[in-house]
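This follows on from our talk about sequence and fold. Go ahead and set the record down below:
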Amino acid sequence: MNLPVAPPAFDATTGPRQRRRTDTGVDIGVSCGLVCVELLTLVVTFGLWFLSGLDLDPGATVESDSLWGYLAAVGAVGVFSTVAAAFAARAGAFVTVISQATVATLVCVIVFGGTMAQSHEDARCRDTPSAASCED
């Protein structure tokens, strides 16, 4: 006796809309690697800014560099993390999407805070050029 066989109701593994997801272990590994590289880049960038105003001579007056160039480098890290999140979303790597979105948010906060601080410093030096941290 031959009974009719019904086609499957829904099969997400075949067809034009296949649901692809990356392996969770690979996703977590890529996410951790990207976050470590980005945080290392941020630490090096702000470490260089800190070292620009550091001098071991107690009698010398040292002024640190302007933050604008360093904020541009931090913004580049933010753009990189946003692009990485977009590629990860396309690949279905949701752990990487979340971690890169978190890094992009952190970079936005850093850039916004640094911009406000440097703008305040620039305005103070423009209004009072004889202030302690202003260039002569």
The chain has a mean pLDDT of 84. The chain has three helices and no strands.
